[in-house]
Write a sequence for this structure.
């Protein structure tokens, strides 16, 4: 195995889950997301020699995002978000560590599904900034790097995304 391949495995491969999460949130289809992540990793490996060092996570997520947008252009369509209650499963313990009742579990599942659906209904520019910042926990600077936009635009979009999410969930409540 070459030194470049070893570095790739050490610096990029740990972000496989983050890459899949971003792709899944953007394209809203687990099978397409898997294909796009695989293609993104192949591209990342091919161009790893041009990586200038630093944190590989924003670099990789930028590749994933660009691949998702290319897929959108090829499809010439927007996917509708579907709620999958099976993906909304959580631990069966309350905040004190005790078992939850079936009713409480159902309410948690429904609440989680509502939040997931509300995020999925956000326009793509707001959804991607929210996912990168709040779910993937990237810094504002890293989000700006991934999206290739100024940090101020990240902050503005994030504020609007949070406000829209809050309004959407207020309607649910």
């Amino acid at each position: 195995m070459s030194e470049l391949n070893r570095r790739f495995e050490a610096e990029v491969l740990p972000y496989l889950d983050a890459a899949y999460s971003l792709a899944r949130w953007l394209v809203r289809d687990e099978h397409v997301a898997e294909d796009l992540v695989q293609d993104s990793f192949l591209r990342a490996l091919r161009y790893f020699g041009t990586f200038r060092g630093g944190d590989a996570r924003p670099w990789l997520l930028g590749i994933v995002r660009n691949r998702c947008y290319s897929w959108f252009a090829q499809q010439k369509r927007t996917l509708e978000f579907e709620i999958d209650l099976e993906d909304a499963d959580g631990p069966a313990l309350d905040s004190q560590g005790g078992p939850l009742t079936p009713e409480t579990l159902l309410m948690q599942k429904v609440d989680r599904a509502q939040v997931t659906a509300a995020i999925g209904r956000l326009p793509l520019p707001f959804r991607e900034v929210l996912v990168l910042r709040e779910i993937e926990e990237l810094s504002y600077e890293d989000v700006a790097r991934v999206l290739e936009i100024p940090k101020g635009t990240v902050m503005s979009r994030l504020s609007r995304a949070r406000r829209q999410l809050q309004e959407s969930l207020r309607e649910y409540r």
In short: The chain has eight helices and no strands.
